[in-house]
Write a structure and sequence with these properties.
The chain has 223 residues and is mainly alpha-helical. Helices cover 67% and strands 0% of the residues. The protein contains nine helices and no strands. α4 packs antiparallel against α5 and α7 (152-174) packs antiparallel against α8. The chain is elongated. The termini are far apart.
Length: 223
């Protein structure tokens, strides 16, 4: 009795150039949970995508271009998660952004740490993209302060505030010992406290809306 014919091998779907780039970046993002960006293996990524190493460079001219695309995609995820309602007040936007950031770290703490390790490792493109993330948070925080003028001291304080937010959020994401809403309040309240410690004369210029939103408005207690 003749052997029955073998079933045909499955045909791999042909992806458009944009879909292939998206697939490769997605694989890179997943691997970023396990290792810093500079340790991603181009050979492993190409193999998982079912293409040759050489074909990967048809979609990304250099290894650096691929790494930049992966890091930018990671940064977009962070900023998208922390994006507040554009129709909300600036004070509310601040706490919405913090809440979104904490929510992101709850789910994706390891990829964020991998991004940080890449930044600390000295890769210039990682440092630049990380600075864009920091800059977005600092700008939102500065906007929430209202008419308080910017000075060299307040600029340092704002950067220091984000470092405090980041370090505290990472520790909390590993061991969430307080409710998320409570931590949002702690982080937000630290902002006017730090700015007015750096520049005590700015206390009277802080946004009344921000102070009221954070429960720090003492005007009702005035005689």
């Amino acid at each position: 009795m003749p052997d029955s014919p073998s079933p045909p091998a499955p045909v791999r779907a042909r992806l458009s150039a944009e879909d292939r780039r998206r697939q490769l970046v997605g694989i890179g993002l997943r691997m970023l949970t396990e290792r810093p960006i500079h340790d991603l293996s181009i050979d492993e990524i190409a193999a998982e995508a079912g293409i040759s190493r050489g074909l990967l460079f048809h979609y990304f001219a250099t290894k650096r271009d691929f790494y930049v695309a992966v890091v930018r995609a990671a940064a977009r995820r962070i900023l998208r998660a922390a994006r507040p309602d554009p129709e909300a007040s600036r004070a509310v936007q601040l706490t919405q952004s913090l809440d979104g950031y904490l929510g992101f770290l709850e789910r994706r703490r390891e990829p964020y740490l991998a991004l940080l390790r890449g930044s600390a490792g000295g890769a210039d493109y990682v440092s630049e993209i990380y600075e864009e993330i920091r800059g977005a948070f600092v700008a939102r925080a500065a906007a929430s302060l209202g008419a308080a003028r910017s000075t060299p001291r307040t600029e340092l304080a704002l950067r220091g505030w984000f470092s405090f937010v980041e370090d505290t959020a990472l520790a909390w994401a590993k061991d969430p010992t307080v409710p998320r809403a409570e931590l949002v309040s702690i982080l937000a309240r630290a902002l006017p406290a730090l700015v007015t410690t750096a520049e005590p004369g700015l206390a009277a210029d802080l946004s009344p809306e921000l102070l009221a939103h954070l429960g720090l408005d003492t005007s009702r207690d005035a005689p």
